[in-house]
Amino acid sequence: xxxxxxxxxxxxxxxxxxxxxxxxxxxxxxxxxxxxxxxxxxxxxxxxxxxxxxxxxxxxxxxxxxxxxxxxxxxxxxxxxxxxxxxxxxxxxxxxxxxxxxxxxxxxxxxxxxxxxxxxxxxxxxxxxxxxxxxxxxxxxxxxxxxxxxxxxxxxxxxxxxxxxxxxxxxxxxxxxxxxxxxxxxxxxxxxxxxxxxxxxxxxxxxxxxxxxxxxxxxxxxxxxxxxxxxxxxxxxxxxxxxxxxxxxxxxxxxxxxxxxxxxxxxxxxxxxxxxxxxxxxxxxxxxxxxxxxxxxxxxxxxxxxxxxxxxxxxxxxxxxxxxxxxxxxxxxx
Length: 334
Fold this sequence. Notes:
Blueprint: E1 2-7, E2 12-19, E3 23-31, H1 33-36, H2 44-65, E4 75-81, H3 85-102, E5 106-110, H4 111-122, E6 130-135, E7 140-147, E8 150-156, H5 162-172, H6 179-187, H7 212-227, H8 234-260, E9 264-268, H9 275-288, E10 291-293, H10 304-316
Parallel strand pairs: 1-4, 4-5, 6-9, 9-10
Antiparallel strand pairs: 1-2, 2-3, 6-7, 7-8
């Protein structure tokens, strides 16, 4: 089954053709990062306008690379939640138009479910059930994946997401957007034990995260040093901050896996590209004799291929939408 998938939840206009949920026939991404760098973050109105300008060309290119036209496609999939509402609406309405014009079924896909599905493309043997840590700019979740379309949130952030904390800390250090990537690179040359930073816990919720206090601690360190005319070693501060975030993510994830009896762990989302997070998770799983999976770097960020992968399983489960499909800015993965 060949699915044309569309993704426009934030600042990437993407489309892909995926076969049977596991094989990428084409994948095209038009990034807006350079433009949003001017503002230090994503400007929703600009993102929506750029999606409008790019989506037709991106979809055409995805079909061209797959050497197909709509007659060779079996269904159309689109991210409809969660995300920036204006950005989502561009993709949803474009997909609805294609579906109506072609008569092809329309498959609505949840953004976080598709991030998890990026692992199905890389790891052909991976099947539920498993426990997944989904970490991105807007989300930090521990998800029990019981089946391809049956999921339960075990833990989540109470305030900032890990990716958001990385970006804001990096911005305070003077790094350009997107800050998380630059912070990860700077941390490679730093000493992670240079600064003692808090490791937040949530009372009564051992699997939940909290990164707001950690982010504030770093910002206060920078401001205090600036007021005294001192300059902090950016590499060391980056390494210390990265270690504190990763410690929190891995410790909670491992505890959840042990308590729930999972020995198959999966990493997903934009922050799954973080080098320390990948290495720490691999090390912890190796020491326990557990299996660990994470997506290739090309599929960590938003893309159409992951949407097409999850759409295949949504279709098999009977999750098909009509012309009344609407975008949703927020929606649980469950």
